[in-house]
Design brief:
Rossmann fold; two-stranded antiparallel sheet; 17% strand; 233 residues; 33% helix; globular; alpha/beta
C-alpha cells in the first residue's frame, strides 16, 4: 500500500486587508474526508506541519451550517478526536523526505494563506516531488501551498499547469469576503497557473498529470478518490 503525506497548516489566524486578525486554521471537512478516504483504502497517511506544531481546526468548519448539518459536524468532531494523537504530534515539515511518499495531499482552510504559501521547506518538498512525478493533490485553499514551490531562479514551479482552486466568487460570498487579504485564484493566475474552475460550491476536480486539484470543501471526497485512482494506475 502507499505512503501519503498530508501537509496541514499550523496557522491559527489570518491578517485581513484591514489589519485585523481573523481566527482560522484547517477546514475540518477537508482533513477528515481526505484522511478517512485514503486510510480506509488501506494506505498510510502521515500528517506534517511547519515546526511540527499541532494544527488548529477552524471552528467555523465545525458549525452545523458550515458542515452540512449537525450530524456531519458531530462526525467531523468525532473523527478528529480519533486521530488526535496524530494531530498532536505531526511530522516536522523541514525533516520530511518526499522520496518516502507516493502522494502529497494538501487540504485547505484559510491557514495556508498565512504560512504554507511561503514555506521554504514545503517548497523544496513540492519541487522534488513534482520532479519525481509524485502525486500532488491540493484542494480548496490548498493550492496556495503550490506558491511556495519555485526553482533556483525564483520561477513558479507549477506555471503552465492546469488546476482548480477556491474561487474568487466563493471567497467573496462564502469565505472571508471583501476583507480577504489576497485571492488565491488571482495570485495563481498571475504566477502562470491555468485555473479551470466550475460553478461555485460544486464538486470539481482537475487532473494535470501528477497534479490533482479540487475547488472547494465539496470536492474533498472527489480529490481523495482521484488520488486513489492515480495510486492504483
Amino acid at each position: 500500500m502507499a505512503s501519503i503525506l498530508m501537509v496541514v497548516s499550523a496557522a491559527n489566524s489570518l491578517t485581513m486587508r484591514d489589519g485585523s486578525e481573523h481566527p482560522t486554521g484547517y477546514w475540518a471537512e477537508e482533513v477528515v474526508v481526505a484522511h478517512q478516504t485514503l486510510r480506509d483504502a488501506g494506505h498510510t497517511v502521515h500528517i506534517a506541519t511547519p515546526g511540527g506544531a499541532k494544527p488548529t481546526v477552524d471552528e467555523v468548519s465545525l458549525a452545523a451550517a458550515s458542515a452540512g448539518g449537525q450530524d456531519r459536524a458531530d462526525s467531523f468532531r468525532a473523527y478528529l478526536a480519533g486521530i488526535d494523537a496524530e494531530l498532536s504530534a505531526p511530522l516536522v515539515l523541514a525533516g520530511v523526505d518526499p522520496a518516502g511518499y507516493d502522494a502529497i495531499v494538501l487540504p485547505g482552510g484559510h491557514g495556508p494563506m498565512t504560512d504554507l504559501y511561503q514555506d521554504a521547506d514545503l517548497g523544496k518538498i513540492l519541487v522534488a516531488a513534482n520532479t519525481a512525478g509524485t502525486i500532488i493533490a491540493p484542494f480548496c485553499h490548498g493550492p496556495a501551498d503550490l506558491l511556495s514551490a519555485t526553482d533556483g531562479a525564483g520561477a513558479f514551479a507549477f506555471a503552465g499547469r492546469r488546476l482548480t482552486v477556491f474561487t474568487n466568487e466563493e471567497e467573496l460570498n462564502g469565505g472571508t469576503g471583501p476583507n480577504t487579504p489576497w485571492f488565491v485564484e488571482d495570485v495563481l493566475k498571475d504566477k502562470g497557473a491555468v485555473v479551470e474552475n466550475a460553478a461555485a460550491w460544486s464538486s470539481h476536480v482537475v487532473r494535470d498529470g501528477n497534479l490533482i486539484s479540487g475547488q472547494n470543501p465539496q470536492s474533498s471526497k472527489a480529490v481523495a478518490q482521484e488520488v486513489l485512482k492515480a495510486l492504483a494506475g
